[in-house]
Design a protein that fits this description.
heterodimer, A: alpha/beta, Rossmann fold, 8-stranded mixed beta sheet, 7-stranded mixed beta sheet, 53 helices, globular, B: mainly alpha
Chain lengths: ~1300, ~180
């Protein structure tokens, strides 16, 4: 009975189990919802797909490519996969996981375009693939709905319910549309008819072609598009929204011939020919864009725009010459949980204002247009500044041209000299440290006065309350302290009719001048805001021009692109059409100016290249060297003569050779001397600064054309000879061989052609035509620059062009065009990879040759200009050092890295450290992250072939240093691979220049190093640590640096002529020396010759530049042809020599100061330099003498009493004759003043003291703003002692235990006994 | 404290091992396993602490005084055990392990963690746990083998704890005064 009951219960259980199993089976086979995984859909696509799915039997899950792990985890439990292939890169493991899923029966569909990398289709017939493509390539509400249902039917054919599927609805491939869903138009006439029908057509309104996306209209997630269409229509435009591709699109645009194009999609609008047509037809192109970031991220100034967005939405449109890159929408999570575009109304208003003002320039008569022009000037009496440009004459010529065009420039002085005097008197820049000078300015000049209520009313209308509060918090309530009288604030400016000239004021008050120019991390003062508010609200400007490279507005704090009202650079330009004259030679900073101030750049020429005269000067020596080299066994007499001459010229010091006159140089030394002398002889130097609108002289045209075209011609001729077997490949690659055997001929041929150009250019030999084209482009440039600005002021377009040194890239000519950058995602380009790898190998070869071992760590400086010009060769060097290689996708983008196995590498894996400028960080953030990935990969790479892995060792050492600093192990591990560092707070400044030049405030160079470690200590490695600052991290990363390398890509500057070089490389070198106790080797990676990328020692590079320029009478004479800008450059050269002395004195010849003294102070060559400086820019001369004397005070110059007395007397005389110039060295250093006074005769001393006392009474220097924090590495010896102490106590304890045990055992034995 | 702390930690560990030799074998194994698991769980937590935090704990007077109380209590229990065990009184004392070894061992591993960069944290947790288990089990067994008779081990345990108490008093004095 009991058994039967048990049996019944068992049966019931069995039946229940079977029923459950059956139910589960039925559920799984027939009823379960179809689970579809959607991979790599953008957030917008995700929203579209999900919100248009009306079937509860379809469950959607979204994943990005990184979640698609090789183990196939996300694929488990899915019935189908839909992959959006745009921008997708899958590695082999991921593809294999998909294929494996396919074998398990999962349906995999890839919505692919023809040129895309990923095309995985599993369990689909070709017909089914085509049907799916028809659904997904025609994205509309109906097609998404039906596409998902269709996929459900294929992937899970037995599942019941929601089986009804409609066929795909093909959308017109190329069509116009409008706000109304389902209304599409084949041509613009149909749109016009529709607009008329709906009452939306404005007679005489601008025809605006609006391209919102390649696959638009997406029905649903397009609020920003609809808003823009509506607002443009309300603004009186006739809007033609278009979705089309390729040639058809171009044809439709040509047919419409719009007045303006607004282009939102990623990618270019058209090919080069089409873009040329657009600009020739003067149709401006505007590129606002939606951001794939939520609102909160967007307004966070430390959150950069993602690299993909940067490339697609900003970089590429720039290539087409687009302007107005406003962010008009963000992507935010909706109530439904999906991310939808949200129009940013304020930004749409801003864009609309910019757009309508821009087009309004076309309608407004010139005579009524009001133009505001800002220029840059240092405080004090120095010149108006612009890189390579004489500002005063350029500005004057530009105003004359405006007058010719009909602009009202009434009151413009009749002469340039009168204009110059007026600008210096009325448009000066005041430092807060000079209240006396302020008072003098307010007394003699005629500024515009803003009452406090007026100023505050404008500020409240323009600025966000919290931004204005930042100003008040830092500088107090309006009107502040600078340029104030009573309750009013003065705006320094000059008005000529409808043109307003104003100097850019200092963007922050303090004495760290460089930091101020390149971006102080603080709000600008009232005195900075006032002119920008006035020009919009008071003057009523229609357009704004910044005149010359570069100002400071673009370096005020904020985001790299996609600014909001919270960014000073955006809010101060204030939606005015903005144009910026910018030197073509500085593409890196130009791009930042363009993006951060919504500017269209108009490039201007570099100063002309001129003959250095050094070949003539060294010709006898070079002949002797070549004779000595050619003589069998060496000719002793010639050898001795060479040595005598080299020693006389001091060349032996530059090369570190001996000076024993009785022993000739060895063969190797002769070759070294030959290379060095040849380089000086061939050095390309620039002459007096360029004046806008003034063409190069005939001679300058020839010499500049030679600089651009002679090297390529020589190389091309040599290459042909190599191909013909006349020379060897080694000779072709030997730059000196080319210079001796091919360059002179090339120069002669080009010179002859330019001096006697044939009437029929067809008769010119093909290899000479580039030279002719270059000459023509140079000749056209100056006119083009003025024409381009005038055209822009008429609401026209500025043609796009690449930027850079014309010698390196002749395509930048003619100037007068809008510079663009490069696609950072495609860097390093294949060619750049080769160049970078070669230079890295050369670095290692040279170091090993000198030191007998490989360096452990190489530290690089990366700048934007070099990055753009070399297409990433700088980054390639670092990759090569680490032993990783870039991997590209089908579109050429570098998307991944391969670790080169140690055996294949055949050398140690070298560690790197990279310091970047803020500009590079802003344009190539993704590459910095890639570099950090490379470091991580290299650190994890196994050793092999007996080669050590210095990256792994460096990472461990960095981790240990951070642990010792007190970081947690997890945090130390995270930061152990950080090798990329840059300015703090997403700024642009190292702060070094201001600090070095405030030399009265520091006594030990280590203070500068500590400042550098602090100011450049922000890590730019990965997302989690972007812009983060950890005290001691940079110092830890710097440990074991053996080499520092600075790239160089332009002939327009060198280590002595550009202050940023000592600022970055000198600063880094000094910091390394301070941290490690050893000065690293320093090199320049020289990219100036396309056919000869090479590595050059820093000392040699400095020597070449000083001999070819600073100490070269020909160069000085050339520069003396210029005005106050050229003269200002002499002062800068001296300051840079001082900077090198403070940071890395070993690069300088110890005799350099004496030679500077002979050349400039005594004027031994009789150049008349004193008269020249006295006439055009006494402030520059005062700076030069002050630097010499400060160098003596600091002990850098071992000057004789006579030298000191002479220099001091000249300095004192100049200050008395012209007043103290009040640049940093002249007025900001009481210790120097005291020192100078000590060198003067009694009478001079009294006069000098009186002059300076008057100045000092009004020029009290604020304390430097540079933050110096204690940032020293923990003392390793101390660490070791601590460890030894612990170990000692543990040993003692163990010993004690032993004693206890022995005692116990002994007692026990005794007891037993 | 910098000097005394390592010594105290070592003595606490020795006390644990000596006391472990009086535990039933199953309990000694269980306690060793618990110690190992504790280490395994503690290391991931340790990796998120800074050396400064750990140092702060060992130099904070109130924490040190709390620790001293614990040390005195455990020392008292151990000494009481030493006196009562031969007479067979308070038999429950035999089953009480040295609990302060738990923080002491973790502190010891923290020193390894902070002085040896490049260690894989996950692996370290396993290795540390296994090493701790081996030392706890092996150390107890070794002591049993080296000092087979109970009275001698009791003497050893007594001396260790006496010394610990003295050090604790010294440490408390150093902190208080």
């Amino acid at each position: 009975m009991r058994q039967a009951k048990t049996s019944r219960i068992f049966r019931i259980c069995l039946i229940v189990a079977a029923a459950c199993l059956l139910a589960a089976l039925v559920w799984a086979v027939f009823l379960r919802p179809t689970r579809i995984l959607v991979v790599n859909a953008t957030l917008a696509q995700q929203a579209d797909v999900a919100l248009n799915n009306d079937s509860r039997r379809i469950r959607l899950k979204f994943a990005d490519a990184t979640q698609l792990a090789a183990d196939g985890k996300p694929l488990r439990g899915t019935d189908a996969v839909v992959i959006f292939s745009r921008g997708l890169y899958l590695d082999e493991g991921q593809v294999s996981a998909l294929e494996k899923s396919g074998r398990r029966g999962v349906t995999v569909f890839t919505n692919t375009l023809n040129n895309q990398h990923v095309d995985v289709q599993e369990n689909l017939t070709p017909e089914q693939v085509q049907t799916m493509l028809d659904y997904f390539r025609n994205p509309s509400a109906a097609n998404y709905r039906n596409g998902l249902r269709y996929l459900r039917r294929i992937a899970t054919p037995l599942r019941r319910g929601d089986r009804d599927v409609n066929a795909p609805v093909p959308l017109l491939k190329n069509m116009y549309y409008h706000r109304e869903y389902g209304r599409y138009f084949p041509d613009h006439e149909a749109v016009t008819a529709y607009l008329r029908e709906k009452g939306l057509y404005h007679e005489g309104g601008d025809r605006v072609l609006f391209i919102s996306g390649l696959n638009f209209p997406m029905e649903g997630n397009r609020a920003h598009v609809d808003t823009l269409i509506t607002r443009l229509t309300e603004a009186g435009c006739n809007v033609y929204p278009l979705t089309a591709e390729g040639k058809a699109r171009e044809e439709m645009i040509r047919a419409l011939h719009p007045d303006a194009v607004i282009y939102l999609p990623m990618g270019r609008l058209g090919d080069d020919a089409f873009i040329r047509w657009l600009h020739e037809e003067n149709i401006p192109l505007f590129n606002p864009f939606p951001l794939i970031q939520p609102h909160g991220d967007w307004i966070d100034p430390l959150q950069p725009v993602s690299s993909g967005t940067l490339t697609a939405r900003v970089v590429v449109p720039e290539i087409d010459g687009g302007v107005g890159n406003y962010c008009i929408a963000t992507q935010n999570e909706s109530d439904s949980g999906f991310f939808l575009y949200t129009p940013e109304q304020e930004r749409i208003d801003a864009f609309l204002e910019y757009f309508t003002r821009y087009l309004g320039l076309r309608r407004k008569p010139h005579a009524e247009k009001r133009i505001a022009i800002g220029y840059f000037k240092s405080p004090g009496k120095d010149a108006l500044l612009a890189s390579g440009m004489e500002v005063i004459p350029s500005l004057y010529r530009f105003l004359l041209r405006l007058r010719e065009e009909g602009y009202d420039v009434s009151g413009l002085p009749a002469t340039e000299a009168a204009f110059c005097r007026l600008v210096h008197r009325e448009g000066s820049v005041m430092g807060s440290y000079a209240p006396g000078a302020q008072a003098e300015f307010l007394r003699t000049a005629h500024p515009v006065w803003l009452s406090r209520p007026q100023y505050e009313a404008w500020a409240h209308e323009t600025l966000l309350p919290e931004k204005y509060q930042e100003v008040v918090d830092r500088y107090g309530p309006a009107p502040g302290r600078l340029l104030v009288r009573g309750d009013s604030l003065a705006v320094a400016c000059l008005q000529f009719g409808n043109v307003l000239l104003f100097p850019q004021p200092r963007p922050a008050l303090g004495d760290d001048e460089f930091r101020l120019v390149h971006g102080a991390g603080v709000a600008p003062p009232h005195s900075y805001l006032a002119p920008y508010l006035y020009l919009k609200k008071g003057f009523g400007a229609d357009a704004l021009i910044h005149f010359g490279t570069h100002g400071n507005l673009e370096f005020t704090p904020g985001k790299n692109v996609a600014q909001s009202q919270a960014d000073w650079s955006d809010v101060l330009v204030g939606n005015l059409p903005h144009f910026y004259y910018y030197t073509t030679g500085n593409v890196g900073e130009g791009i930042i100016a363009k993006r951060r101030t919504h500017a269209a750049l108009v490039t201007y020429l570099t100063p002309p290249y001129v003959e250095s005269g050094m070949r003539q000067r060294y010709s006898a020596l070079l002949d002797d060297i070549h004779r000595a080299q050619a003589a069998e066994g060496g000719d002793r007499a010639i050898g001795l003569r060479v040595k005598r001459e080299a020693v006389r010229l001091g060349l032996h010091r530059d090369l570190g050779l001996d000076s024993t006159l009785s022993i000739p140089f060895t063969e190797a030394e002769l070759e070294q001397l030959d290379n060095f002398t040849e380089e000086i002889a061939d050095e390309k130097i620039t002459g007096a600064y360029y004046t806008l609108g003034q063409p190069y002289s005939d001679q300058d045209l020839i010499t500049t054309t030679l600089a651009v075209a002679a090297d390529p011609l020589a190389y091309e001729t040599a290459r042909r000879d190599r191909d013909a077997g006349r020379i060897t490949t080694e000779q072709l690659q030997d730059i000196n061989y080319l210079h001796q055997h091919y360059l002179p001929t090339a120069r002669r041929r080009i010179t002859a052609l330019l001096q006697h150009p044939p009437k029929d250019t067809a008769a010119v030999a093909p290899e000479l035509r580039p030279a002719l084209a270059c000459r023509d482009a140079l000749r056209a440039a100056s006119q083009n620059e003025l024409d381009a600005m005038v055209r822009a002021l008429n609401g026209g377009t500025v043609f796009p062009a690449p930027g850079g040194d014309p010698v390196l890239n002749p395509n930048v000519l003619p100037t007068g065009r809008n510079m663009f950058g490069i696609n950072a995602e495609a860097t390093p380009s294949p060619l750049a990879w080769e160049d970078g790898a070669r230079l890295a190998d050369e670095t290692l070869r040279q170091y090993k040759e000198q030191h007998g071992e490989y360096p452990r760590k190489v530290s690089y400086t990366f700048w934007a200009g070099e990055f753009i010009s070399t297409e990433g060769a700088t980054i390639a060097q670092a990759f090569r050092m680490l032993g990783v290689e870039p991997l590209r996708d089908k579109q050429g983008r570098v998307v991944d890295l391969r670790v080169v196995p140690a055996e294949e590498l055949g050398r140690p894996r070298i560690d790197v450290l990279v310091q970047v400028s803020g500009q590079l960080r802003d344009i190539a953030g993704s590459r910095l992250r890639l570099l950090t990935d490379a470091v991580k990969l290299a650190a994890e790479a196994p050793e092999g072939g007996g080669w050590p892995n210095y990256v792994a060792a460096g990472t461990q050492a960095q981790e240990k240093a951070l642990l010792d600093k007190g970081l947690s192990p997890v945090r130390a591990r995270e930061l152990a691979t950080m090798r990329v560092f840059g300015p703090l707070n997403s700024g642009y400044s190292t702060g070094m220049l201001g600090f070095v030049e405030s030399s009265g405030s520091w006594d030990d160079e280590r203070e500068i190093a500590e400042g550098f470690l602090n100011n450049m200590g922000a890590a730019y490695g990965d997302e989690a640590n972007w812009a983060g600052y950890e005290p001691g991290l940079l110092a830890a990363a710097m440990a074991s640096t053996d080499v520092v390398i600075q790239p160089r890509q332009s002939n327009t500057w060198g280590p002595i002529s550009l202050d940023h070089v000592y600022e970055f490389t000198g600063g880094l070198s000094l910091a390394v020396k301070t941290v490690t106790g050893r000065e690293p080797d320093a090199f320049f990676a020289d990219y100036r010759n396309r056919h000869n990328r090479r590595l050059q020692g820093a000392r040699e590079a400095v020597a070449v530049e000083t001999r070819a320029t600073v100490l070269n009478p020909t160069f000085i004479r050339e520069r003396m042809k210029g005005g106050e800008g050229s003269a200002q450059m002499f002062g800068e050269l001296f300051r840079n020599v001082f900077g090198w002395n403070a940071t890395r004195p070993s690069v300088l010849d110890p005799k350099l100061y004496d030679e500077l003294y002979d050349t400039y102070i005594v004027d031994a060559e009789g150049l008349g330099i004193h008269d020249y400086l006295d006439r055009v820019n006494p402030a520059a001369f005062q700076a030069m003498t002050a630097v010499m004397l400060e160098s003596a005070r600091k002990g850098y110059w071992k000057a004789s009493a006579e030298q000191l007395a002479t220099t001091a007397a000249l300095h004192a005389a100049s200050t008395q004759a012209h007043g103290a110039a009040c640049t940093e060295f002249v007025c900001g250093n009481p210790k120097l003043e005291h020192y100078i006074a000590g060198q003067l005769a009694e009478a001079d001393r009294r006069a000098y003291a009186a002059t300076m006392a008057a100045v000092r009474n009004v020029a009290a220097t604020d304390a430097s703003e540079i933050v110096l924090k204690e940032d020293r590495l923990a003392d390793p010896v101390q660490q070791q002692h601590a460890f030894a102490r612990h170990a000692g106590w543990v040993g003692a304890a163990l010993g004690l235990l032993l004693v206890i045990l022995l005692l116990v055992r002994l007692r026990r034995k005794n007891r037993i006994v | 404290m910098e000097i005394l702390f390592p010594l105290i930690a070592v003595l606490v560990l020795l006390s644990f091992l000596f006391k472990g030799s009086f535990l039933p074998r199953w309990e000694a194994a269980a306690v060793s396993l618990a110690l190992a698991v504790f280490v395994w769980l503690a290391i991931p937590w340790l990796t998120r602490q800074t050396a400064g935090t750990i140092e702060q704990w060992t130099s904070d007077p109130s924490r040190v005084l709390d620790g001293a109380v614990c040390l005195v209590l455990e020392g008292a229990v151990m000494i009481l055990f030493c006196f009562t065990a031969p007479a067979g009184r308070f038999r429950f004392l035999r089953f009480i392990p040295g609990l302060l070894a738990f923080p002491a061992v973790v502190w010891g591993w923290s020193q390894v963690l902070f002085s040896r960069p490049g260690l894989d944290f996950g692996r370290l947790a396993w290795v540390a746990a296994l090493a701790t288990l081996a030392v706890a089990l092996g150390g107890t067994a070794l002591i049993r083998r080296l000092v087979p008779d109970e009275p001698s081990r009791l003497e050893g345990l007594f001396l260790i704890n006496l010394f610990l108490l003295l050090l604790t008093i010294a440490a408390t004095g150093a902190i208080t005064f």
